[in-house]
Backbone:
């Protein structure tokens, strides 16, 4: 099955400032990842692309710079989680009422048919939950909106690391265009 994406030619004043900054994935480069049946081969190589696409890593970064960034971001993620876990009882009640209640309801319904999230007491579901709760602490102005779990789930299933997934999700949220903070109807449109 073939598909085509047509992009209109727009004047530079109407395009995103980063338009044309990065090399596009061409058809031949994509086809190099497929076997004769059209199935993705060497899936692990494609998994490594997500942190670049979601701007966790810079395209110009070296492997040493990426590893240093990863260690720094892992520490930052741990600090965000610690901030969440050390809330006062009053802060925790407000957080539970405004964020955690909805997250807890959503994560148990997200992608349950996907093998990665299937089953009772699945650690991947708990990891998704922590990512979303920590994101609400990291970015309280946005907090959590129903549907964010649907954005985190495929990233977690591909990246396979909680901290890396969190920062990829941060990149996704920073580079997603919302007219205002994401509300339920905004998430559905996106």
Residues:
């Amino acid at each position: 099955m073939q598909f085509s994406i047509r992009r209109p030619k727009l004047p530079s004043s109407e395009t995103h400032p980063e338009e044309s900054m990065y090399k596009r994935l061409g058809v031949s480069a994509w086809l190099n990842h497929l076997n004769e049946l059209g199935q993705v081969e060497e899936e692990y190589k494609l998994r490594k692309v997500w942190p670049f696409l979601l701007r966790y890593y810079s395209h110009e970064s070296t492997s040493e710079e990426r590893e240093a960034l990863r260690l720094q971001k892992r520490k930052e993620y741990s600090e965000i989680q610690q901030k969440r876990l050390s809330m006062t009882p009053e802060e925790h009640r407000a957080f539970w009422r405004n964020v955690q209640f909805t997250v807890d309801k959503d994560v148990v319904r997200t992608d349950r048919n996907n093998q990665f999230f299937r089953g009772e007491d699945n650690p991947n579901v708990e990891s998704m939950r922590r990512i979303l709760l920590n994101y609400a602490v990291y970015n309280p102005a946005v907090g959590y909106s129903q549907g964010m779990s649907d954005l985190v789930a495929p990233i977690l299933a591909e990246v396979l690391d909680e901290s890396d997934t969190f920062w990829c999700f941060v990149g996704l949220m920073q580079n997603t265009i919302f007219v205002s903070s994401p509300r339920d109807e905004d998430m559905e449109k996106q």
